Amino acid sequence: MNNTLQGQVALVTGGNSGIGRGICLDLAKKGVKVMVAGRNTTKSQETKALIEEAQGFAEVYRLDVTDADNVHNVVQEIYKKYGRIDILVSNAGNTTGPLFTHNTPYEEWDNVLKTHLYGAFNCVKECAEIMQEKKYGRIVITSSLAGIHGLTAQSSYAVAKSGLVGLTYTLAKELGPSGITVNAVQPGFIDTPMTEQQLQMCGEQWKNETPMRRIGQPQDVATAVSFFCSPETEFITGVVMRVDGGFMLNLSVDTLLYKFASGEFGK
Ligand code: NDP
């Protein structure tokens, strides 16, 4: 078995911003030919430039994951050119709100579910067939802590991210016999354009309630994704990995207890 990512081909959706950009860069530094996919190609070109600066290889594809025909055409174009797609990182995502569930318009609900769930479905549908032919593949899906915890005023997002966990487990069962692993990451608060406003509002509090005492960066998620993409992790599938600096372990009361035990309390 070839234990290196060198020369493999990856399609990364939402590769033109935030976490996806971090994933593209990390994979490219490991020798992967990265197909940067998103709707805004100017931003995708920025990712490509960063990759080339790091001596990596990237191409840009305009992709709307909600458009099944667009996904089909892009995947076929990549396949025709390279004869393989070894890695799919289904990372594209959006949010609404903040909107309480009962105030959420149907269109907003649809939009979020379509982007995350249909988006992942469309990409997996196209790539899985190619991977099955090769009896090899790595699929990584970006879920979220919201998928386990819920998220106030973003129920469509929480529902979509839960749905992606179900998809991950199901795909792991279906595709394992073909040598394809399917795993998911569940980032906590990561510093990206998506979280800019929330970070301003409650970043400090989040940081204090995180055992690692910082906000996550795209590279933190990229490290986990690259791990799942490695040829060496062939016995790891159906895993949903938190990437949150331990946030999920924490409760406000623990922060107080920590301060008490370390003598910081009341300072
Ligand atoms: P960004 O807003 O920076 O990135 C979102 C990406 O998704 C963009 O590249 C955007 O590109 C792409 N995208 C959105 N809609 C579509 C579409 N229809 N077709 C193709 N691409 C699309 O946010 P993040 O980097 O933070 O988010 C990346 C993923 O991580 C998302 O799935 C998000 O839910 C998830 N996540 C983020 C967390 C965080 O704290 N930041 C925490 C947990 C999960 P474009 O608009 O050009 O198409």
Can you tell me about this structure?
β4, α4 (106-134) and β5 form a beta-alpha-beta unit. The radius of gyration is 19 Å and the shape is globular. The termini are far apart. A seven-stranded parallel sheet has the order 3-2-1-4-5-6-7, with helices on both faces. It has helices at residues 18-29, 41-53, 68-82, 106-134, 146-149, 155-175, 196-208, 218-229, 252-261; strands at 9-13, 33-38, 57-62, 87-90, 137-142, 180-187, 240-243. The mean pLDDT is 95. It is an alpha/beta fold. Helices cover 48% and strands 15% of the residues. It has one domain (9-194, 215-248): 3-Layer(aba) Sandwich (Rossmann fold), CATH 3.40.50. It has nine helices and seven strands. NADPH dihydro-nicotinamide-adenine-dinucleotide phosphate is lined by residues 13-14, 16-20, 38-40, 43, 63-66, 91-94, 115, 142, 144, 187, 189-190, 192-195.
Structural class: alpha/beta
Q: What is the CATH class name? A: Alpha Beta
Helix tally equals: 9
Briefly note the CATH topology name.
Rossmann fold
Query: Looking at the structure, what is the overall shape?
Result: globular
Each distinct ligand: NADPH dihydro-nicotinamide-adenine-dinucleotide phosphate
Distance between the termini: 56 Å
- N-to-C series of helices and strands: EHEHEHEHEHHEHHEH
Concise account of the structure shown:
The protein is of the alpha/beta class and 267 residues long.
Attribute tags:
Rossmann fold; alpha/beta; binds NADPH dihydro-nicotinamide-adenine-dinucleotide phosphate; 267 residues; 48% helix
